[in-house]
Amino acid sequence: MNEYLTADQVCEIVPGMTKTGLAQLRFTGHGPRFLKPTPRKVLYRRSDVIAWLEGSEQTSTASVR
User: Fold this and answer.
1) What is the C-alpha to C-alpha distance for residues 19 and 22, in angstroms, rounded to an integer?
2) What superkingdom heads the lineage (predicted)?
3) CA 52 to CA 48: how far, in whole Å?
4) Number of domains comprising the chain
5) pLDDT in tens, 9-18
6) Inside any domain, residue 65
7) pTM for this structure?
8) 59 domain residue, yes or no
9) CA-based torsion, 13, 5, 27, 51: positive or negative
10) 61 in a domain, yes or no?
11) CA distance 5 to 43
């Protein structure tokens, strides 16, 4: 069973994340997948947040060209 999280809960489990930053990622399409059951409600599946976070894993700080 999926656990659904609010933006506040996502910010608690992602180090350094703010609600404003999460909203910006949502706007640009670079954040975790989200659900919008009503026009004013945004929810995230915990599994999608973890997958998004793990998908950002890096092995170097060098920029890729």
Assistant:
1) 5
2) Bacteria
3) 6
4) 1
5) 999 999 999 9
6) no
7) 0.85
8) no
9) positive
10) no
11) 5
